[in-house]
């Protein structure tokens, strides 16, 4: 039976206002498990562990999802290209996960038609594509009615008139799932919290303490907001630090200097207005250098990506270069020649780092996306590699190891993972699936439209916050007598919700990782910034000075998405 988490809605247990109490709780207890890293990998582990009854803590040195987990292509996909690399197991696992994640968060993991144009001398020929997509459907257990369809050249042109026609031979049309990576992470964190985990952002693991057996017994944590340091005691510690996995391993004096290490590759996405790239559906297309790119229309924009280049710079702020942008524009113009996209069309961007495991002699695109677990003498369990799509399975594998060790040493009960049956926060839909999301959108519209809120805003609320969207709508109604401007009431209501239920600490948390607005609506952000800063400063019990400080900090992020470095990308 699925576990419903309505009770979390009544408890503001994850409020940013409770930070001091959370730190006191973390410092005073001994946990079964401490997870370092609040990206999707750490979030999944915290949920799996807490739901199996382990006393679990998670620390994240930035905001939740501020690393790679807010900078991906935002697809829950089986990875068609891994089939070409014969990674059948990976395709099967991630393919099947799509259905599980859709069931547990239907508002966030949404089926989306993907068109794969077949071009002369392209990556996939017509027969190979037809067979490959069929195998893909079978491996991923795709249900009837959603299986792939092969299109002739004329049908492909009718489906997507923007594709260049001189080299077109046909197309494959198949189902993938789109998501919002940062929201998937925060909803997973909230679900872990609802199961008893304590999850704290802006808290950095800086040093390990060892017991008399040489095992890690505590982690020194630096509170990035207050500047204080405190220790968290835990019987087991997992390093889920994504691109920082090696950095955290370096803090462990017992970790061997092994030949297994990360190979970071950078992936850039650029955003253009939908009118400049009016794609009728998502596309996965060949480009001249033999790679394939995605073009994904959503919320009035189309985003394009990604690059894949070895990266050795600053991990926290991977930068988009002019070369990255011109590569993506050139590639899009090659396949969609009528677009004539230029640098001025780019209205936002993001760059992320893939935490892959190094393999001698392989190029970035050839490196496996499989995950691996390393365990040090001191007991630090590090997980690296993997994909957003497979996070639930990865988490179960890590927690299986933790549970076995805890049982052996402390007699802790050995419970199996059951996250397959746990709806994520916001995914609490009676009946489930896309139909239930439609019902939610219709009921939100009944209240929102008389207030003058647009259909697009209703969709934004429904797909972003799922079954918690009515909380925001109710707050808008509550604020309206004093705040007759509906847009302004809506912004205040969202901030109220994200502060009390989603642990928002600053404007970047809100505009990037809770609402995606810096990426998808940057051109409409300016009038929202000061009111948002003032509202959040109020909730944080700070004055106008805090609002000004937050605005200045956010301005750096606001500029960075269009500030492209001139240095050449490392090959
Ligand atoms: P992260 O999200 O980086 O999380 C690690 C966290 O650890 C960070 O937030 C960091 O701040 C924190 N941390 C580090 N050190 C410390 C410390 N000392 N103390 C406390 N916290 C610390 N996968 C898909 O399935 N679908 C896709 O469409 C897809 N597209 C991608 C596109 C690109 C360009 C990239 C780069 C990746 C893509 N992926 C995709 C892969 C997927 O995004 C990653 O596998 C996943 O997000 C990694 O999550 P993570 O939690 O391991 O790492």
Structure characterization notes:
It is a single chain. The protein is α+β, with helices and mostly antiparallel strands and 571 residues long. Among the domains are: 3-68 and 182-261 and 369-421, FAD/NAD(P)-binding domain (3-Layer(bba) Sandwich), CATH 3.50.50.60; 433-560, Alpha-glycerophosphate oxidase, cap domain (Helicase, Ruva Protein, domain 3, Orthogonal Bundle). The protein is built from 19 helices and 18 strands. The chain has helices at residues 6-10, 19-28, 40-51, 80-84, 88-104, 126-140, 153-159, 181-194, 245-250, 322-335, 391-410, 433-448, 455-465, 469-479, 486-502, 507-514, 517-520, 526-539, 544-560; strands at 30-36, 56-59, 75-76, 110-119, 149-151, 168-178, 198-200, 203-210, 216-223, 229-239, 262-273, 282-286, 292-298, 301-305, 309-310, 348-357, 371-375, 380-385. The strands form two sheets. Strands 3, 4, 5, 6, 11, 12, 13, 14, 15 and 16 form a ten-stranded mixed beta sheet that branches. Strands 1, 2, 7, 8, 9, 10, 17 and 18 form an eight-stranded mixed beta sheet that branches. The longest helix has 20 residues, at 391-410. The radius of gyration is 23 Å and the shape is globular. Mean pLDDT is 92; it is low at 1-7.
């Amino acid at each position: 039976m699925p576990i419903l988490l309505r009770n979390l809605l009544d408890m503001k247990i994850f409020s940013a206002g409770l930070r001091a109490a959370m730190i006191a709780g973390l410092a005073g207890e001994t946990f079964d498990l401490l997870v370092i890293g609040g990206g999707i990998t750490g979030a999944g582990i915290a949920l799996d562990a807490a739901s199996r009854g382990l006393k679990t803590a998670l620390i994240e040195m930035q905001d939740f999802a501020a690393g790679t987990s807010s900078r991906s292509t935002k697809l829950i996909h089986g990875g068609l290209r891994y089939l070409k690399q014969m990674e059948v197991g990976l395709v099967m696992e991630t393919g099947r996960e799509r259905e599980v994640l859709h069931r547990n968060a239907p508002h966030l993991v949404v089926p989306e038609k993907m068109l794969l144009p077949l071009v002369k001398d392209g990556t996939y020929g017509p027969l190979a594509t037809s067979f490959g997509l069929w195998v893909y459907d079978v491996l991923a257990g795709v249900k009837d009615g959603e299986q792939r369809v092969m299109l002739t050249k004329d049908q492909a042109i009718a489906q997507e008139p923007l594709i260049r026609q001189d080299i077109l031979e046909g197309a494959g049309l198949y189902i993938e799932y789109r998501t919002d990576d940062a929201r998937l992470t925060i909803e997973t964190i909230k679900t872990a919290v609802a199961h008893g985990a304590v999850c704290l952002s802006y808290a950095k693991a800086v040093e390990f303490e060892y017991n008399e057996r040489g095992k890690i017994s505590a982690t020194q944590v630096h509170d990035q907001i207050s500047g204080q340091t405190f220790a968290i005691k835990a019987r087991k510690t997992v390093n889920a630090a994504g691109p920082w996995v090696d950095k955290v391993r370096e803090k462990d004096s017992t970790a061997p200097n092994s030949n297994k290490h990360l190979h970071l590759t950078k992936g850039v996405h650029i955003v253009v207005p939908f009118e400049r790239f009016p794609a009728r559906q998502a596309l996965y297309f060949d480009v001249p250098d033999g790679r394939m790119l995605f073009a994904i229309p959503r919320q009035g924009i189309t985003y394009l990506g990604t690059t894949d280049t070895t990266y050795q710079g600053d991990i926290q702020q991977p930068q988009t270069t002019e070369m990255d942008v011109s590569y993506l524009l050139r590639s899009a113009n090659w396949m969609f020649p009528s677009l004539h996209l230029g640098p001025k069309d780019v209205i936002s961007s993001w760059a992320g780092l893939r935490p892959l495991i190094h393999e001698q002699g392989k190029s970035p695109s050839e490196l496996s996306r499989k995950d691996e677990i390393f365990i040090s003498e001191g007991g630090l369990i590090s997980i690296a590699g993997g994909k957003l799509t497979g996070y639930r399975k990865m988490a179960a594998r890590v927690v299986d190891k933790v549970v076995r060790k805890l049982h052996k040493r402390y007699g802790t009960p050995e419970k199996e993972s059951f996250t397959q049956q746990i709806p994520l926060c916001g995914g609490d839909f009676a009946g489930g699936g896309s139909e239930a999301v439609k019902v939610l959108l219709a009921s939100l519209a009944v209240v929102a439209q008389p207030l003058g809120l647009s259909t697009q805003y209703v969709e934004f609320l429904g797909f972003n916050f799922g079954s918690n969207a009515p909380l925001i709508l109710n707050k808008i109604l509550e604020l309206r007598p004093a705040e007759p401007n509906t847009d302004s009431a809506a912004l205040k209501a969202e901030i109220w919700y994200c502060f009390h239920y989603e642990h928002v600490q600053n404007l970047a948390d809100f505009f990037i990782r809770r609402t995606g607005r810096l990426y998808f609506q940057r051109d409409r952000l300016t009038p929202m910034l000061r009111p948002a800063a003032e509202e959040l400063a109020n909730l944080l019990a700070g004055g106008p000075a805090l609002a000004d400080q937050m605005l200045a900090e956010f301005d750096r992020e606001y500029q960075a998405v269009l500030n492209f470095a001139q240095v050449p990308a490392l090959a």
